[in-house]
Automatic annotation (TrEMBL):
PPPDE domain sequence ranges: 1-112
The entry's keywords: Hydrolase, Protease
Entries under SMART domains matching the protein: DUF862
GO function terms (MF aspect): palmitoyl-(protein) hydrolase activity; peptidase activity
Family recorded in the similarity comment: Belongs to the DeSI family.
Protein name according to UniProt: palmitoyl-protein hydrolase
Amino acid sequence: HTSIIVHKDEFFYGSGGISSCAPGGTLLGPPDTVVDLGNTEVTEEIFLEYLSSLGESVFRGESYNLFEHNCNTFSNEVAQFLTGKKIPSYITDLPSEVLATPFGQALRPLLDSIQIQPPGGNTFSRHNGQS
């Protein structure tokens, strides 16, 4: 699980679409590792408009795929929008590294059928005021 913390909220993506919570507020609890990507000049209003656009297009819940379009993809995209920096490649490369193993290939059919949404967040929707 990866996410982006900005403007006092944690934003993440799963099979339910884009969600938010207080930092560390999913049932997964506090993160094992935090990567500081710096500061942003993007205002909260512009950021929420951007997220709304992503949630209606590229990061709809039904577009989620554990290996190819996941929370890492979302975090990387949002990080670049906010700071111009990507998240570390050891994170974004992990799904392809798993698939490169015989075990990963054997499990892929099962894993492709699983819907993943970290519990504890609120589905993001600019229209209802949640963030």
